[in-house]
Amino acid sequence: MSPGVTIKTVAQAVGVSPSTVSNAYNKPDQLSAALRERILSKAHELGYAGPDASARALRSGKAGAVGVLFTDKLAYAFSDPYAVGFLAGLAEVAEEFATSLLLMPLSSSDIQGGANAVRQAAIDAAAIFCVAGGHPALDMLKNRGIPMVSTDRGDHPDLSWVAIDEVEAAAKLGRHLARLGHRDLVVLVDNAEAAGSQPVELTLDEVGYTDCELRIRGLQKEMPDARIRLISGGHNAFSSGLAGAEWVLDSQHRPTAIVGLSDVQALGAMEAMKTRGLVPGKDLTVVGFDDIPAAGTAGLTTIRQPIKDKGRAVGRVLLDPEVKEHQLLLPTELVVRSSSGPAPRT
Amino acid sequence: MSPGVTIKTVAQAVGVSPSTVSNAYNKPDQLSAALRERILSKAHELGYAGPDASARALRSGKAGAVGVLFTDKLAYAFSDPYAVGFLAGLAEVAEEFATSLLLMPLSSSDIQGGANAVRQAAIDAAAIFCVAGGHPALDMLKNRGIPMVSTDRGDHPDLSWVAIDEVEAAAKLGRHLARLGHRDLVVLVDNAEAAGSQPVELTLDEVGYTDCELRIRGLQKEMPDARIRLISGGHNAFSSGLAGAEWVLDSQHRPTAIVGLSDVQALGAMEAMKTRGLVPGKDLTVVGFDDIPAAGTAGLTTIRQPIKDKGRAVGRVLLDPEVKEHQLLLPTELVVRSSSGPAPRT
DNA sequence: TCGTTTTTCTAGAACGATTTAGAAGAACGA
DNA sequence: TCGTTCTTCTAAATCGTTCTAGAAAAACGA
User: Fold this and answer.
1) Is there contact between B26 and strand C, defined as CB under 7 Å from any strand atom?
2) Strand D: which of residues 51-110 in chain A lie with Cβ below 7 A?
3) Taking every annotated instance into account, which residue ranges of this chain make up the domain HTH lacI-type (chains A, B) (predicted)?
């Protein structure tokens, strides 16, 4: 835009008031078609590209964007098709409401920086995607009075969320494994601190993310006397699952089943088995969580959650004023494929 | 934020001028530490969460965000780890400059809507990620005077871009294949119109995206007398590569090599071979483009391009005023793995 | 002690739009 | 013809900051 060309410039050039030019763009029915045409063509002639976004945002109090907050680096966040599916669903609704998505990674190293970014962001609402409760950025949002919807159930009754019953979903997996006779599991967990180094064994307390913790509880519930070890190979990614599983498979004691708390990790575990000549579902059972597309082609037994719907629902709760229900529980389903089989007799 | 609490409210409460409150947040060295402390604590007490983003954006002329434009739905865009890598690099630099990323999918069905979204977006600059030149959204950006950097080389001398030499990169692939004796290829191409239906055979003119076209030219250059057919199974995705390759493998005439114009498509092709008991590199050669992480584990011969660097470079060109070079060519490299082998004698 | 510089703070004008309330004129019905 | 209702357009206030220029006070050097 040629510098200095504002709504006022155009108004003067055409010989009308600024309000009328504004209406030409925003409320076409408020003026005659002829005048509107005249204004628009003059604007084009002057190199005016339409009302300035910031000014509009200030005056109208609407930024026209929602923030998407997620932990850790972008690269890790989107290495999981699950995240991509969520975002796609959210984007769908956002588009419908003529709203953009503002990506806001909250690096775990620079907590304050993340909160700062949130403070400065011009957003009307925020989707909290797998961010641990209590993060200062969330307080910041609350302070700014920005509506937010989380993908995890919170404990606060007035918190909005769209989630699944993590415990019950994992319990389905647990029942399936128990029925197959498994009593010795390894659970592959997402853990930032294990990244870059050797896989580590964790206690339940050390598992950082609420949803992971709940899933583990769900397993324990249905398998009270099974041995369950928690192993992390790093961030939530294929490579972490691979690393974690390799470590487990090459150790003294192999479990009869490996549970990935996400499909990408479970797929990594399948890869580790493959290179060792082990057949999933026969030599060792592998199960996952999410049911991403690749799980189907790999024959991975997993828990399906309607991820795109989750994104859509979050979008609706955030943007659609008609939606009253602010706490939504989505259904899950056990999908049995070839990667799970009976535990070998000992 | 309690409604109506502005910088002015705080100023009055503390007994200073609005400018000073502003400085307390933005220029801490412009006032005494004691006063700053007093202002900040009073602000907190009043429930003031810091300067309003829109107002700041208007007054200072900086939105604090860059737009990321890409064609088609988000789900397709990010199904390719290549896109994720790019975004990760870009995000890294954006973070450094305290800038957010505004995602802007340009749906191919609603062209005007996309341009409109661009008009209303509060952004300082834009990264054009694989958007065909001539899209109205690009004109809109130009009109608004927003600096932009494309991931494709444009023909305009004053256009900014960070790209690879597509022709030369593909030529490396072509030389490799020619040396192995291949003279009958199928190229798997990204094509929106083939989505959802049967795979289709295209002519070079029908290939929509410039980069795809250039890559095909690169192949042709080094394999002047080879038979090269262009097949599309849909959008750029694993499933499209799978569908396209299945169609090819089950047809009357099998080529000796399949070229995926992206790794995800090539990996889909490998999957199609696997289910047919064919061994890549032996029964049929498969090569890809990009060198995403999964290419390594799958043993896919491919062209490596420094994708994260590409994102970083785009970020630098967009945000760093010190960077003068606005047209950057990044290096590529042929990575030979087990998926390519000599063409069988006929 | 007297200029001079530095520190600390302020007044008031932008930034570029949207909104509200209402004026002027046209159209309408009887 | 008159009063009423639409249609079309405008004036002026306002959104919440940041910026520029400069004033007042403090610190400094000699």
Assistant:
1) no
2) 55, 58-59, 61
3) 5-60
Instruction: Name the residue with tokens 């009073």.
Output: B42
Closest nucleotide (C1' vs CA) to B14 is C9
Listing from the earlier edge strand, what are the strands of the sheet with A327-330?
A: A327-330, A160-164, A148-150, A125-129, A65-71, A100-106, B100-106, B65-71, B125-129, B148-150, B160-164, B327-330
Write out the two tokens for B71.
């064609």
Q: What does the H/E/C string look like for chain A?
A: CCCCCCHHHHHHHHCCCHHHHHHHHHCHHHCCHHHHHHHHHHHHHHCCCCCCHHHHHHHHCCCCEEEEEEECCHHHHCCCHHHHHHHHHHHHHHHHCCCEEEEEEECCCCHHHHHHHHHHCCCCEEEEECCCCCCHHHHHHHHHCCCEEECCCCCCCCCEEEEECHHHHHHHHHHHHHHCCCCEEEEEEECHHHCCCCCEEECHHHCCCHHHHHHHHHHHHHCCCCEEEEEEEECCCHHHHHHHHHHHHCCCCCCCEEEECCHHHHHHHHHHHHHCCCCECCCEEEECCECCHHHHHHCCEEEECCHHHHHHHHHHHHHCCCCCCCEEEECCEEECCCCCCCCCCC
pLDDT at residue A2, rounded to an integer? 61
Cross-strand pairs, B150: B128, B161
From CA A173, how far away is CA B342, in angstroms rounded?
46
* For testing contact with chain B, the best of A101, A104, A120, A129 (most B CBs within 10 A): A120
Distance measured from the CA of protein residue B7 to the C1' of nucleotide D24, in angstroms:
24
Burial (CB count <10 Å: 0-12, 13-18, 19+), residue B238: buried
Q: Are strands B227-234 and B200-202 parallel, antiparallel or unpaired?
A: antiparallel
Among B2, B3, B101, the residue with its CB nearest the CB of A103 is: B101
Distance CA B214, CA B220 (A): 10
Q: Using 50, 70 and 90 to split pLDDT, how confident is the model at A157?
A: confident
Please check whether residue B35 is in contact with residue B54, taking contact to mean a CB–CB distance below 8 angstroms: no
Question: What residue type is assigned to position B211 of the chain?
Answer: D
What is the rounded distance in angstroms from the CA atom of residue A297 to the CA atom of residue B225?
A: 37
Each residue of A28-40: pLDDT tens digit?
A: 999 999 999 999 9
- CB-closest option in A50, A122, A308 to B57: A122
CB A57 within 8 A of CB A63: yes
For B259-269, what is each residue's pLDDT tens digit?
Answer: 999 999 999 99
| Pairing of β A227-234 and β A200-202 | antiparallel
What distance in Å separates residue A225's CA from the closest CA in chain B? 37
pLDDT tens by residue, B179-204: 999 999 999 999 878 777 789 999 99
Only one residue has tokens 């304050």, namely A112
pLDDT digits (tens, 9 = 90+) for B210-253: 889 999 999 999 999 999 999 999 989 889 999 999 999 999 99
The DSSP bridge pattern shows strands A333-335 and A302-304 to be antiparallel
| Radius of gyration of chain B, Cα coordinates, nearest whole angstrom | 25
**Residue pair A269/A244 in contact by the 8 Å Cβ criterion:** yes
CA A241 – C1' D5 distance (Å)? 73
Is B59's CB less than 7 Å from nucleic acid strand C?
A: yes
Tell me, what amino acid is at B157?
P
